[in-house]
Amino acid sequence: MGVSGAYLTIHEAAQRMALAPQTVRQWIHAGVLLARQPKSAEPEVSGESVAQWLHEKGRLPHFSPVAADVLKVAVIEDDPDIVQLLSMSIDGFEFRSEVHSAIDGWLGLILTHEWRPDVVIADLNMPNLDGFRMLAALEASDFPPKKIIVITALGERDIDERGGIPKRAVLLRKPIALHELEAHLRPH
Questions:
Q1: Distance between CA 135 and CA 148 in Å, rounded?
Q2: Of the chain's two ends, which shows fewer C-beta atoms within 10 Å, N or C?
Q3: 7-8 and 35-36: which strand pairing?
Q4: pLDDT tens digits, one per residue of 11-67
């Protein structure tokens, strides 16, 4: 049964998206999922939002299980050159890792939900869903990563004016010092 054009209860949307209902509520509040608020009822989720999630989820590659000593890193960045630089650098570090990437915050949420990386490396300025809202949604989800590394050229003032980043996130400035990145990624 299709969902586009219809509205779903939070529980129906959560079930279809394989998310916890609380995550769906948080994402409505954060503006990640479109919803309407009927009088005297719980918000209803746009079927279009759910359909878009399911469509993009279906485009992801199949993720094979990895050994416990492999660090799973999601790079969420819209600049393909930076993605390539980070992926190649992380692959060259002296510990085992697997890297997957997404080009915006919306796809980053889907990737993170499906793959459950240990570390998310995220830019803040991205199309569709920016890094600020994506990180807030990840923190409110039932699948937050163990570590978040934010890479940005924005100054402290700009970051604060746009809502800030999670307190536990590590902030690295662009251009990225790869030895710093390695130090923050290295398993202890």
A1: 9
A2: C
A3: unpaired
A4: 999 999 999 999 999 999 888 899 999 887 899 999 999 999 999 999 999 899 999
3-state secondary structure of 132: helix
Q: Which CATH architecture has domain 71-185?
A: 3-Layer(aba) Sandwich (3.40)
The pTM (predicted TM-score) of the whole model is: 0.91
* Counts for the chain of helices (H) and strands (E), in that order: 8, 8
- The predicted-structure confidence for 152-171, as pLDDT tens digits, reads as follows 999 999 999 999 999 999 99
Q: How many CB atoms lie within 10 A of CB 132?
A: 21
Look up residue 168 and give its DSSP letter.
T
Give Cα 37 distance to the centre of its chain: 26
**What is the phi/psi pair of residue 85, to 5°?**
-60, -50
Report the C-alpha gap between 155 and 152 in whole angstroms.
8
Collect all residues with Cβ–Cβ distance below 8 Å to 156 and sequence separation of at least 6: none
Check: CB of residue 102 under 8 Å from CB of residue 108: yes
